[in-house]
Amino acid sequence: MSATRLTLEVDASVARAIAQNPSDSCSTDLAEAPWTFDKTPGYGPGSSSADPFPGIAPAQGDLPEDLRAASDDELDERIRAARATLGDRVVILGHFYQRDEIVAYADYVGDSFQLARAASEHPAAKAIVFCGVHFMAETADLLSGPDQSVILPHLGAGCSMADMASIDEVEECWEQLEDLLGPLDEPDADGLVPVIPVTYMNSSAAIKGFVGRHGGIVCTSSNAKTVLEWAFARGRRVLFFPDQHLGRNTAKAMGVPLEQMPMWNPRRALGGSSPTELADSRVILWHGFCSVHRRFTTEQIDRARAEHPGVRVIVHPECPMPVVDAADESGSTDVIRRAIEEATEPTTFAIGTEINLVRRLQAQNPQHTIFCLDPVVCPCSTMYRIHPAYLAWVLEKLVAGETVNRIRVTGDVAEPARTALDRMLRALP
């Protein structure tokens, strides 16, 4: 499972589509450049705009006027010139959900896990420019060398799901569970501890460090089943955060009854569950979700089947359980990509994941008919903040000998976070 180099033959740009028809998007503000709303606290227009925004989230500073005023051609020339000057000293990583205008410059394209591994495989690069979101850049910093700088072109590119589980909330949850279940690090007669914490890759380095300190592990959407098996071999139950849907869908497919998967809402005592429900639980699900994948519905699947008889519906496991149950298949972004590429006959696919990836898959596989289940163009609002002007800015700063927007994970968090990530790397699906 590795990141891939990407070549596009057809224009699949979501940014251009929104600019031409802003009324077709979930927010007409998406047609504006990201620096027009950088000074406003929040995730920006798009699928995450209604999510609670943490007050401690970093904000991006002003972008130089010459870059804000530059045309697409001028930005292209400046990015390519900086890349030529920097050579192998820099590697650019682009997430699957990035706009095509960024993916065009990426040395590697993949999901967060694939790109983190790509970062670790380029020790010669002095700078790793991660075109993704904050938690991804943190993970790249954890897995890259100490003499390498990981740069996030836009500091406002966070993740609303990751922000739904803060370290203070998780530690409070842990204390309440310990009061209820007894010492959580003491194994019983069968050698099992009361709770094993499992965090999704979409979480902060602080959360990964918490998991590492308490005998837990990180998971991805591709190895979640393997990770839960690992956890059940060591604990009576799992505390799974921050995405409730990935946890529920994975555990349900493994045979865990829904009644043994209570929800933990950090704003309620005992997470809103009773002591009996928590004591009888197998998986305690955190009250978090992905704003992009929460948009998909069973009604959209019904409409796709009615309008396209024989359609093959594939959705991401971050989608709500009824959507995953109604689909033909579910899987990570890489699983979706490979399913389409491996289809030998022309096929109609309805895909439930982020629109930039869906449009790109459509452009790369013209032998198939591929469309997004959600007819409204609504990209991940934080990913969308990474604009070529910001990429040009960080690259030109590197040429000038200055490193801006560097993402660092401090030592007290880094060591246990690396432990949790190392356990994940060994949990092969």
Word description of this protein:
The chain is of the alpha/beta class and 429 residues long. The protein has helices at residues 14-20, 65-68, 72-86, 100-103, 112-120, 134-143, 160-163, 167-181, 205-213, 224-232, 244-253, 275-279, 298-307, 321-326, 333-341, 355-364, 388-399, 411-426; strands spanning 90-95, 108-110, 127-131, 149-151, 193-200, 217-219, 235-241, 263-264, 283-286, 312-315, 329-330, 348-352, 369-372. The protein has a 5-stranded parallel β-sheet with strand order 6-5-7-9-8. Strands 2-1-3-4 form a 4-stranded parallel β-sheet, with helices on both faces. Strand 5, helix 9 (205-213) and strand 6 (217-219) form a beta-alpha-beta unit. Helix 3 packs parallel to helix 17 (388-399), helix 5 (112-120) packs parallel to helix 6 (134-143) and helix 9 packs across helix 18 (411-426). The longest helix is centred in the C-terminal third of the chain and has 16 residues, at 411-426. It is globular, with a radius of gyration of 21 Å. It starts with 13 loop residues before the first helix and ends with a helix.
Shape: globular
Number of strands: 13
Instruction: Specify Rg, calculated over alpha carbons.
Output: 21 Å
Number of helices: 18
Helical fraction equals: 25-40%
For the biggest β-sheet, the strand order reads 6-5-7-9-8
The biggest sheet, with number of strands, parallel, antiparallel or mixed sense and barrel status, is:
5 strands, parallel
Beta-strand content bin: 5-15%
End-to-end CA span? 11 Å
Low-confidence stretches: 1-9
Mean pLDDT comes to 93
By secondary-structure content and strand pairing, the structural class works out as alpha/beta
